[in-house]
């Protein structure tokens, strides 16, 4: 689970999660925020995790790494558990361009 995940040990410097407050496509992301965000943030107090809500936007996560490298993944129609898995995968990538 993402709550035990330690962020910032490698090249990852920031996570940004974009979602819509009402869209069905963002339902899994909203569930992740409601159920998993607080434990994840408590485990990573000094790591920037930014939540951005915008009406009508498709949900997406952005990971910023060393040297300004950014990767993003769509979170459209993803269940809560898959959002956690995507965060774990982005934390492991270390900014390698794919």
From TrEMBL:
Covalent S-S links between cysteines: 20-54
Any GO CC annotation of this UniProt entry: mitochondrial inner membrane
Keyword Mitochondrion part of the UniProt annotation: yes
InterPro entries: NADH_Ub_cplx-1_asu_su-2, Ribosomal_mL43/mS25/NADH_DH, Thioredoxin-like_sf
Membrane-protein topology: Peripheral membrane protein
Keywords from the UniProt entry: Disulfide bond, Electron transport, Membrane, Mitochondrion, Mitochondrion inner membrane, Respiratory chain, Transport
Presence of the UniProt keyword Disulfide bond in the record: yes
Main localisation: mitochondrion
Domain of life (superkingdom): Eukaryota
Endpoints of the signal sequence: none
Localization: Mitochondrion inner membrane
Domain Ribosomal protein/NADH dehydrogenase: 21-94
Entries under Pfam families matching the protein: L51_S25_CI-B8 (PF05047)
Gene3D superfamilies referenced in this protein's UniProt entry, alphabetically: Glutaredoxin
Homology family: Belongs to the complex I NDUFA2 subunit family.
Function statement: Accessory subunit of the mitochondrial membrane respiratory chain NADH dehydrogenase (Complex I), that is believed not to be involved in catalysis. Complex I functions in the transfer of electrons from NADH to the respiratory chain. The immediate electron acceptor for the enzyme is believed to be ubiquinone.
Protein name: NADH dehydrogenase [ubiquinone] 1 alpha subcomplex subunit 2
Organism field: Anisakis simplex (Herring worm)
């Amino acid at each position: 689970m993402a709550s035990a995940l330690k962020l910032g040990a490698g090249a990852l410097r920031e996570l940004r999660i974009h979602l819509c407050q009402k869209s069905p496509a963002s339902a899994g992301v909203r569930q992740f925020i409601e159920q998993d965000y607080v434990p994840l943030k408590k485990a990573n107090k000094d790591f920037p995790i930014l939540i951005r809500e915008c009406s009508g936007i498709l949900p997406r996560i952005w990971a910023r790494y060393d040297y300004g490298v950014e990767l993003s993944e769509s979170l459209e129609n993803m269940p809560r558990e898959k959002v956690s898995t995507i965060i774990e995968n982005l934390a492991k990538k270390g900014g390698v361009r794919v």
